[in-house]
Each structure stands twice: as C-alpha cells, then as structure tokens.
Automatic annotation (TrEMBL), chains A, B:
Active-site residue numbers: K207 (proton donor)
Oxidoreductase as UniProt keyword: yes
Annotated NADP(+) binding sites: A10, G11, L12, G13, T14, V15, G16, G17
TM stretches of this protein: none
Name this polypeptide is given: Homoserine dehydrogenase
Binding residues for L-homoserine: E192
GO molecular function list: homoserine dehydrogenase activity; NADP binding
Organism: Novosphingobium nitrogenifigens DSM 19370
UniProt-listed Pfam families: ACT (PF01842), Homoserine_dh (PF00742), NAD_binding_3 (PF03447)
Enzyme Commission number: 1.1.1.3
Alphabetized InterPro entries for the sequence: ACT-like_dom_sf, ACT_dom, Asp/hSer_DH_NAD-bd, HDH, HDH_cat, HDH_CS, NAD(P)-bd_dom_sf
Enzyme class: oxidoreductase
Positions bound to NADPH: K107
UniProt-listed PROSITE patterns: ACT, HOMOSER_DHGENASE
Length: 438, 438
C-alpha cells in the first residue's frame, strides 16, 4: 500500500467532529477504497480548550488555521470553518499557493469565490473539491460532473435546504403556523438562532448557483439567483395547496435558455413552489434534500438523501478525500474554469406557468371584485378561486383569498400585482408561489 | 487537447445505436468533460447489412467481433452484445489480454464472470467498467463506489427491473390482470417476446448481485440470490395491498449480517414486496428504476431514473468512457478482486418481518379454519385477514383469502405453509410477499 494521504482539518464543529469520527471509525474500509490510508496530521479551530469527544493530542495543533495550508506534513486541507470570506478564503488561497489540495463544505465560499479558487487550483494542478457544499451526503456533484457527464443538462432543480423542508413538512403534518414550527425547530437545534440564511433561501441559493455551474458549464453566478424564502407562508396556504393536490416545497431551479439572438442565458430561482402529489419531490419529507437533473440522453435523474448533519456531510468530505487519494484532480467545475461560459441572466418576463396567489384583504365588500378585475385587466386567467375564512393579523381581522391561475405568462401576474399595488383593500403584499411543471 | 480515446463498438442494437448517436450528438461536450475527444474507430455486429440510421462506412468493420479487442487503433472496447458467455465473454477476455479497457452493459456477464474479468483487468492494469449494467442511466455504481465510498453499507435494495415495474404500476392504475398487461407490454415492445428474464426476476437478480458486491466488498454471488418473479400476481393482490396502504413492487434486496460465530454472511433476495405508501419506492412508477443504499455515516441515499432505453443506457456507457479518458482505472468492484470477501450465504430462517399471504381455496366450508389453524400451530400471528370474492381459475370457481401477518419470523411462515402443503383445500401454492421494512 502506498504512502498515506495526510490531511489537515480546519474547523472542529459538528461537521469537523464527524470527519474525525468517520476517518477513525471506517479507517480500514477507507484505506481499501482509496488504495492508501487517509490520516489526519494537523488540526485547527477557534477554541483549543473545548472538549470535542476525541483525543486532540494525537494531531498537531495550529492556532492560526491559515498555517495549515503551508505545513510540510499536509497533502490536503479540509476547510470546515464556513463564511464566504475571512479565514476560510485566506486558508483556501494559501493552500493552493502551496500546491496542496482543498476539500470544503463551505457553500458560501464556493458560491462567491468558486471560479477564482478553481482557477488557482487548476494553475497549481491540484484538486479543489466541494461535494459536501451541496445537499450534504448526497453525491450530486459527482452525479452531475461524472455520472451524467455525457449529457447536456437543460434543467436542474430540487429541495436544497433541510431546515425549510423540515418546517414545511411539519406545517403540513400538524397544521401549525410557520412561526410556531420555526420556534420549535430552533429549540430542537434544527434551525439556527438567526434562521435567515435558511428560511430566506440564501443557503439554497448558494447551492443552486454551484449546481447550475456544474450542470451547464456556466460560471457560478450567485448574485444572479432570484430568491424568495418561506417566511410568509401560512398554515392556510399549506391547507389550500393540499386541497388542490399539492405540497409546498422550497425549490431551487436553474435552466438554460436561448434568447432571440441565439445567446444562451441562465435562469436561477429559489422560490416556494406547489409540487403535485405525483411528483417525486412531493414525498421528500423532513430535513431530506433531493436534486433532479434532466439530461438530453439520460432523461430525469433524481438524487435524494440527508442534506445536512455531521455523518452525511462527513461522508461527502471523505468521498472527496478518497477521490484525491486515488489521484483524481479533475476540473473543480467539470470543465476548466477558463472555459466556463459567462452566460447572461435570463429575462423572466417570457416565462410561463401556473401560479398560486394569496391575498390578505380587508373584510369588506368589493375586494374580491377588485382582485378579479386586476387579473382580468392583466390577462391572467383564473383556474380556481377560494375565499378562505377570517384570520387575525397584527390584531386586525383579515380575509384570505387564494387563487390558482391557468398556465400563462409570469409577466401577466406581475402586471396584475402592479395594478393592485397600493390598493387599500390589500392588508399586505400578495404571496405568489409557482407551480412546479412536471 | 490530448490524443482522442479510440473506441470499438461490439453490438449495434438499440443501445449500440444510442451510444453512436450520443457520441456524435454531444461530441463537443464530451471532449470538454473528458479532456479529449472520444471517437469510434471500429464496429461489429451480427448483421452488417441492416440499416441502423447512421453512416457505418465511417467506421472500420469487423465480421468477428472478438478481433475488435486486438486492433491497434482501439483503446477501449464497448461490449453491447449481451449474453453471459459466448462471444461477449470471448471478446472481454481478448480485450484484457491485449491490455485494453472494456466497458459493458452486459449484466449477465458481469453477474456470472465479473470477478474473473476484474482480476484480468487488474492484472493488465486497465479499466473494466459496467455502470450501464445496473439500473440503466442511473449512476448508482459510481454512487456506491465513489459517492458513498467512505461508508460501510449495510443494506442496498431497489426497483431494478423496468418491465416489471411498468407491469405492476399499470396493473395498479387500471385494475387489469397480469397476463393482460404483459400481453400489452409485449405488443408495445416494453417486454420481450420471451419475458422470463424480466418477469421471473433473473434480470433484477443479475443487477442485485453486482450491486451487493460493490456495496459490501463481497465477491459477486449471483447463484446466491433467492428469486421470485411477479408472474403469479393477481389484480386482486394489488387491490388488497392498496386497501391496506401499500403498493406492490419487485424489490431486489441485499444485506450483510453477522452470524453466531461472528462471520459475515450475505443475504440477497429478489421478491415482490408490499411497499408502504410513505416509502419513496412506492412512488416509482412505470419503467423507472430506483436504488436505496444505507451507509453508516451517510444514512439513506436514493438514486432514481430511467432503468433502460437507448438514451439512458448510452449515457451510462459514455460516462464510463469519460472516466477512462480522464485516466480513472480504479478497481472494477471498488476494491481489488483478490480482496473481495467470499462471504457465506445467510440463512433466511432467522429473518423477521411482516408478510402478505394469499391463498386460492376451494369454495367450501372449513378452508378458512384450516388456514387459521396452520397459522396458529406454526406460531404465525395474523394482523388482518380478508376473505375476498370468488374468482374463476382454470374453469373452476375459487375463493381468495389474503392475510397480513404481524412482525414475526419468516421461519414460522414457512412452517405454516409446510403444514398446509398438499391440503385439498388449496387450489394452488400460496403466494407470499414480504412487506418492506421502513
């Protein structure tokens, strides 16, 4: 058996601890699969004193994690610190500078600096891998880069945030409202004290931006993702969707399209969607993630599994390490960074589909007629309209009106909402959810 | 860009045609992903004269496909002829003898001779890849070998035969009987004129034997798979399962277990199962395949997609070619063939679970009491028992009695069936289906 692959670990939180545990527990299997042992030589974390349940004295310690990238006894740095910039980015740059490989679970860094880092890794002829950054333990980056490598992918979409999916499926099962379920999820440790990254869709958008680059061969464009989170969803929306045969899921979706001048454009959106009961994503419950990719030869592929947690994330990190141990240093984004297409962003105006709209209106005559008139004037055709019972919002009694449109242009819906803008009948901005096409 | 990877194609049927079309259609993408072009140099098939929809004159022709493995202008042979032995096996051996790589979609050959061929490939330090042999376009071999590489897998199971799944989900949707749906599937070309390989579970067993070797690091043991097909299923069974909240799916399942002496044993079974509506496999419809693997760190992973067809199968073949073009010649079964564990077969006697039993009985008093007594005497506890209406079988009027057992030992069910063996009350052998555990 060849020389061991020597790794340094930056960050010893939940995932870092999982990586140590996995490398120690499955050492023999990992060595057989990798063709050589994978050993930890050095570690670094914010707080040296903390008890992490393993014997830290076995590994060299660095107070300054950036030094890990320069150590003679390290072949690969595993970065599990997080944050788009700061020490994580400094460590990544130092690591490539020293000609060493980097494995990371840091979606924010890859979404914001992935192309720069890929260029550095390619220049240094070393590996830069981030399977754990998207959908936790699910080998979806490998699935797209290698498993579906022969295909032009035209669409990739999925459930990319476990916290949101846990909240949505719990709302579904219990009929409870968003705030209530979020508070419980926070108490149980399933959601962060500051939940914004998850529930406002930013985490899902990071993952989507990475996925679309790999699927389409386009440069990562995180700022190009249109993002809506799940904060405004009510139990009444879930119940309404259910009555129509749908579940609500936060879907990240990316497509490429060709514009009138024949130029390829990239569409990326994170948005709560109504997903029909017959669609496989409708049955993805709890903190599970799932990604669908559609290729021109393979058709529709679905990858599903645990999207977070120490074990699954560590599984993805160590899979990357095994690839590196085997000598795989392929282009981080599947094709060389310099060849990635700087695709322009798609204009959403010409997109078509069905949508769910929910209005919170004052309880007085004429509001329904006003909404219906705006729809008519904007050319939105209504498939079904339901006036729900009364709800109390901020101490005022309100009425919920939900409707589902026929298949039509999204621009018409935008126009209808423009017509209603500022109407005293509406107690708050309408909630729009797209209905996932089969 | 480096030298092209030159391939020879043996077999130009549906899948062979798909591979030609894919390599021609997506040539530019494939070259970018592979780092070099993939080109076909030589071809062979049974019938040279047949029109295959592409210009065969572009490629050198061999009447004897085995010669493909010896040609100077070939780096990789793609074998799409099929059959466990015969020309396919001769070609595989010749190819490795000549130090060239082999890619195949031939599940029968891999299930029967995979270890021998892997040893030959390893000795020649060349690649032997067969992603297309299991679950068509789904990158499940890659998913297990690489994506979940860091995990001890304890169970792998799934829907491995699209023809059976098409028949079962059509029976479900239409209420029609097995023979009727099979005849229609044959007329439409979804099932072979001789459907035995599919509906008797042999095809699924080939795939399962390959999957378990890769998942567990055990030697391929196709003869060790216990196989029951779907031929005896009635519309009444589907309806009965549905009333209880289950769908019926042909499931291939493999597990490792440790026996009383601490020795690892391999359990492999292809069998129609009742799958609860909440399980993701219950919603896999039509010709789709799906594989679930459970690892000690990653938890449950699900891979789903098209299990057959020219496009998806070609996608898997070319994914293997791209890996080879990138220089990946890892062990065919994830660890070297000589290190694969020759695990003994598990004894099924101590397995426990719930089961569905259906009896076809003569329409006379006392038969139900006889069945119930046999269950009691064998220690099988009945959860629910349903006496269904009359059916006519071979011109005789019969009564169907279906029951679901409580969780208990499979050995008790076998004993009950032994007690009933030869009873004049039973018009045919009872039908047993296991209920898939969550």
């Amino acid at each position: 058996m060849s020389e061991p692959l020597r790794i340094a670990l930056a960050g010893l939180g939940t995932v870092g601890g999982g990586v140590v545990r996995l490398i120690e527990t499955n050492a023999e299997l990992i060595a057989r699969r990798a063709g050589r042992p994978i050993v930890i030589t050095a570690i670094s974390a914010r707080n040296r004193g903390k008890n992490r349940g393993f014997d830290m004295a076995r590994y060299a310690w660095e107070d300054d994690m950036v030094i890990l990238g320069e150590r003679e006894d390290v072949d690969v740095v595993v970065e599990l610190v997080g944050g788009a910039d700061g020490p994580a980015l400094a460590l990544a740059r130092t690591t490539f500078e020293a000609g060493k490989a980097l494995v990371t679970a840091n979606k924010a860094m890859v979404a914001n600096h992935g192309i720069e880092l890929a260029s550095r890794a390619e220049a240094a002829k070393t590996a830069f891998k981030f399977e754990a950054a998207v959908a936790g333990g699910i080998p979806v980056i490998k699935g797209l880069k290698e498993g579906a490598a022969a295909n032009y992918i035209h669409r990739v979409y999925g459930i990319l945030n476990g916290t949101c999916n846990y909240i949505l499926s719990t709302m579904e099962d219990t009929g409870r409202d968003f705030a209530d379920v979020l508070a419980e999820a926070q108490a149980k440790g399933f959601a962060e004290a500051d939940p914004s990254f998850d529930i406002d869709g930013i985490d899902a958008a990071h993952k989507l931006a990475i996925l679309s680059s790999i699927a389409f061969g386009t440069a990562v464009d995180f700022p190009g993702v249109t993002i809506t989170g799940i904060r405004r969803l009510l139990a009444a929306d879930i119940a309404q969707a259910d009555a129509l045969g749908y579940y609500i899921r936060l879907i990240g979706m990316a497509e490429t399209e060709v514009d009138a001048e024949g130029k390829r454009r990239l569409f990326q959106r994170v948005h709560p969607h109504l997903v029909h009961r017959d669609h496989p994503l409708a049955h993805v419950d709890g903190a599970t993630n799932a990604v669908v990719a559609e290729g021109n030869f393979v058709g529709r592929l679905l990858f599903q599994g645990a999207g977070a947690g120490d074990g699954p994330t560590a599984s993805a990190v160590v899979a990357d390490l095994i690839d590196i141990a085997r000598g795989d240093i392929g282009a981080p984004f599947s094709i060389p960074a310099a060849e990635l297409d700087m695709a322009a962003r798609a204009d959403t105006g010409h997109r078509t589909g069905k949508a769910y709209l929910r209005f919170t209106v004052a309880d007085r005559p004429g509001t329904l007629a006003e909404i219906a008139a705006a729809m008519r004037d904007a050319g939105v055709s209504i498939e079904s309209l339901i006036q729900k019972g009364r709800v109390e919002i901020d101490g005022e009694e309100r009425v919920l009106v939900a409707l589902v449109t026929h298949h039509g242009p999204e621009s018409a819906i935008a126009k209808a909402l423009d017509l209603l803008e500022g109407s005293p009948s509406l107690a708050e901005a309408p909630l729009v959810m797209h209905i996932l096409e089969e």
